[in-house]
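Title: Prediction job returns without error message
Component: structure pipeline
Severity: low
Priority: P3
Assignee: unassigned

Description:
Job completed but the reporter wants confirmation the result is attached to the right record. Sequence as submitted:
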Amino acid sequence: MATSARTPPPSSKSSADPQWRAQELLLMSEVMRLVGKSLAPEVVLREMLHLMSELLGLNRGRIVLADFVGDIALQGLADRKPATRAAGAPAPQSAIRYAYGLTREEMARGRYGPGEGITGRVLATAQPIIVQDIDAEPQFLARSVARAQLPPDTVAFIALPIEVNREVIGVLACHRIRSRDRQLADDVAVLKILATLAGQLLQLQALVAEKTRALQAKNQLLTRALETAAARYGIIGTSPALLQALGELERVSEATASVLLLGESGTGKELFARAVHLSSQRRDQPFIKVNCAAIPDTLFESELFGYERGAFTGAQNARAGWFEQADRGTIFLDEIGEMPLAMQTKLLRTLQEGTIVRLGGKREIRVEVRVVAATNRDLAQEVQRGSFRRDLFYRLNVIPIRLPSLRERPQDIRALAVHFLSRINQANQRNVSLSPAALARLEQHPWPGNIRELGNVIERLVLLTDSAMVSAPEVERFLPPEQEDAAAAARPPALASAGQAHAPPGAAAPAVREYQPARSHSAAQLQQALLAHGGNQSRAAQALGLTVRQFSYRLRKMGLHNVDNL
């Protein structure tokens, strides 16, 4: 018969038996010694079951755990609140997780449904059960070990609940030969202690696992923070080409000479220009950025140098130009190759003399400004064609720094993609992630548009995808056709000849390939772009990767400036 909750009273004879008491103390000391060496349940619990058999004769010991215990370990067993099972809710299923004296096949058979057998009942009721004779107990299943494989003597079965935070998560059970000179009550008392110890060990292991996960998550955050800190001046990446450019930038940060940033469009020239400013003693002074390609020819002088009251119709008040506003700081002249020749002469005078004259003014105003210029053109070739002043080129080209294209720094693509993803998710209140395969696909792309194109693709992906986790095939939908990428990637980067000074010592100077703005697109391509965008030159220029000024220049060179001629 099965006895629930009530256990036989302790025997004074057994308690006084020094041999059994020594065995109990040895078992406890060995188990605690193991706990001191390791918190791994597979080590401590299995050896505990082994000692139960060897020292106390409690054989085929097993620890059965509820199936949900695996989930608890992931969610934090130590923080789990005591569960109150709703009335009528089924008890959990369970399986043997640790055992001694059972083969793997016998352990595999030890699965129990809700309330099934003696083990299932203990798990469902949270009450210990003692079966005095397994042959006389119909609910004893003998599922793991057939009765024929057990000793012919009367065999008892003891099963006690294992609790964590007052919730039953498992069962400690074993076989026992009933005809022994040791009282059953003593074995039950020891097993209760071991069941409590097993629960505490599982709880402690879960607590350590939870703390470990928290530390790993914190470590990841700190790693990202360090990577962000290592992303000096907001420039993300650790590729050798990028670090070389950053190293050159920092070496000249305290100088006052002009810096010329060279490289393809979309390589981050504005970030580098700001880095020049932030790494210098001028960091607390103004940083003024000017896009030369966006200023109409007629407004260049007034924008750069300002104007006096009455200098032209509508000039009701005097206005300081960009150079005055950048006094003691840094001015960034982006797309310097788009500046008209007439304006180049005035800029040269300002750089040489450190003074400006406002439009309509007569007095010189002294300014102390560091100039950082940027272009994706080959200015040396522009000088040869006469579209850029030679003396201004030499004045700007004191410290040339070439910015690498994204194709030259593939190891930075993953970090850049994650950076854009985080920023765009936050801006649009989305939670889109990229799978490892998707990140690998981004690394394989040639990125003819460089960092700007990568950022645009990530933004388009975040806004248009329906998936929380974007896969590689879905990323493919947002990438431009490969043939376009190959054609763009085949175009040589805009390297000023002065950039050759940064080739490694002893390396052959790269061949200068002439930049040909008038012939980079055919008349048919220009016509097709205009027709496709209804004659809108701004959109047509954007479709061809040109500025409006570049597009208009090509139209004039080919005699297509009048849209009606198309």
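Comment from assignee: result matches the submitted record. Residues 9-15, 71-87, 485-519, 562-566 have pLDDT under 50 and may be disordered.
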